Amino acid sequence: MPHEVAIYGVLVPGLLPVFLGCLLLMVLLDLVVGRLGLYRHVWHPALFRFAVFVCLFGAAGLLLIH
Amino acid sequence: MSTVPAIDSVPAMSRWPWLAEFLAGERRAWIFVGKSLLAIYTAAWLAMWLQLEQPATTMITVTIVMNPHSGMVLAKSFYRAIGTLAGSLFGLALMSVFPQQRELFLLSLSLWVGLCAGGATLYRNFMSYGFVLAGYTAAIVTLPAINNPLNVFDSAVMRVSEVLLGLLVAAVVSDLVLPQRLRMVLRQGAREQFAKFTDFVRGSTGGLIPRAQMEQVHLASVRTAVHLEDMRASVIFEDPEANVRSTRMRLLNQRYMAAGTSFQSLHHLINRLQRGGNPAVANTLITLYRPIGVALSPEPVQQHDPAVLAARLAECVAQLPAQVAASRASLVEPAVLLEFDTGAALLQRFATELRDFSALEVSLRGKQARGTVERVHFRRANDIAGAAIAVLRTFLTMGVLSMFWLASGWAYGASAMLLATIFSGLLAASPNPISAATHTLFGYVAGMLAAFVVVYGLLPGSDDFAALIAASAAFLLIGPYLTTRDTLPGVGAGYSLGFVYILALKNPMVYDPTHAFNDAIAQVAGIVLAGLAFVFVPTVIGSAWQRARQVRRMRELVALVANAPLDGLAWRFESLSRDLFQQVVTHTRPGSDESRSLLAWGLAVQESGRAVLELRRELADSHDLAPAARAAATAAVQAVGRLYHQPDAVRWHDADAAVREAIIATAAVPAVRQYLYQLHSALRDDESPFAMYIPPSSPESVHAT
Prior knowledge:
The complex is a heterodimer.
Chain A: E1 4-7, E2 10-13, H1 15-36, H2 45-65
Antiparallel strand pairs in A: 1-2
Helix pairs in contact in A: 1-2
Chain B: H1 17-49, H2 55-65, H3 70-97, H4 102-122, H5 127-142, H6 152-176, H7 182-203, H8 211-235, H9 240-244, H10 246-275, H11 279-295, H12 306-330, H13 337-365, H14 384-408, H15 413-428, H16 433-458, H17 465-476, H18 478-483, H19 491-503, H20 513-536, H21 544-563, H22 569-585, H23 593-621, H24 627-645, H25 649-665, H26 670-683
Helix pairs in contact in B: 1-2, 1-6, 2-6, 2-19, 3-5, 3-6, 4-5, 4-14, 4-15, 5-6, 5-15, 7-8, 8-10, 8-22, 10-11, 10-13, 10-22, 10-23, 11-12, 11-13, 12-13, 13-26, 14-15, 14-20, 15-20, 16-17, 16-19, 16-20, 21-22, 21-23, 21-24, 22-23, 23-24, 23-26, 24-25, 25-26
């Protein structure tokens, strides 16, 4: 994965599409988990969601950059 | 962890309840101050670490979006991100179209900022922030680069990165650190709505509700409905579970409104029968109403438990037809059957709607959201003329500033324009913009003075981030603290903005008192001009002119219901009428003549509109209706629509005659006839706004036929 990608001739950091993809994934995850009501079993849902997002983004970023 | 800011009743404090209350309020305020400072400094640190040009932009962004409730920050950030992207794209496009023609460039920019300010007045939730920010970003991206068009792209990328970083930090901090959940407020509001409504229905089994009380109840219920919708629109950003339940919450609110309208119609009818010489029918209807009250009265502990109530209501609805038939048989006079049938149908409709409302409430309180429900929307009644005036005002402000800038060659014109852009948008939606502008200006100047002290008194010599915090925190926290005081609207926000602007954190830091002083003067000029524009082009929000137009629009809803396609019309009518009513009512003085007339119209529109709607549905469903009867009923619908469109004595007579003819023509079709009778009785209600048209001694009865 290149460190920068060109979108219509504009160089943007390669992590930007990864970030957007992870956001999308997070929205889907929220839909499923929210529907099942599983966040009620978590002490701090917002912190938990943030942590999940960091894991997703970190893992995806590291996998793609290396 | 408790997320509801509850007032802790420590025994020692219970002697001084005001002290406990004061401490709880202070605790909330200081939590917010702490979160704001954390977010601002984190954002500044990250911006410096990422080597962005102007960490100040990031800090300003955080200052604008911080709000005590998490859902609010997330909602603001979401719309703001969209606004930011739209604004920066527009700024770039503008710069590439007019790189050399500064006049055309400033003209187009003024127009864009004006349109954005107009858009901001159209929406009363956080979408308006998106518009404000679309204008602001276009200005902030292009204005600093105006002397150097080749730089605009780099400038745009920098500004957008800084703004988005600020949004991200504000969202994360307010969501993670001691969040004060709006969701809890929403849940409590929804439960109160349910409890209050069922209590009121239970308590009114006596039948007779004075018109004045009905008006107050309608007012309260409209407030709840609109307020819950406002909160729902924010909470979905805060909480994934609420997001999944969003459709259901919308439907719940719509069912609540529908049941409320039926309840009113029923009681108007009973009241009229009691006054109009048919107390026997009224009493029979009251007897029929009693089972609903009984169904709503289980053990006291279960009285607000929707699961219990829904089951009992379902049983009650199933038994109602038999009871109606029995009561009908007991009526000896055949002449009153039409009145009875109308009332009985309304009663059954109300019971069914109440049952559906409770059932939906049960499914909403469940742990899992199962299945899907009908998609409905809460329609907002937006005022296009008000928005157009905001567009004009902002365009003029920006145009005057641009002209002055071009003509004088003022070096700091860009700062003035930027501040005018921000405050034109923010103030456009305010009901009292001149006083808001004054407050903001005071706060802004105070913030700038504080920042001067910090930058030129305390900062020089400090060489790391900790020293920056040590020097500025004590002054910075005043802003967020003032925001939590309701008595000083605008001062806190002005203070924070002024402080952060003059602090002007750069990478690396620049100390230039002359520049800062000139900048300060330009910024104050920008705010003053934005406020001054409201003197020359006054705001229409809350003006008598706008109220009169909104009342007319509310009346015209009946004409709309009489003509528009039926698909989804019920939801549209119920939400539009309430949204308009709410908007007008917030600007009238309670108890004044205007307010009374407004309330009377509100109730009349609610009742007749719904009756017209149900009548049209019935007409559409009954295919084997005689053509003559259908024509008469349609003519009646049209006549009522015309009457509401422009009420006067002639139209009232036309409507009255048309409805009466239709009642005669549809003698064979009771299903259609009952709605016509309801319309007829609403037209002849001597407590409605039509009272002055009713001839003193006219034949009241339609039973001669």
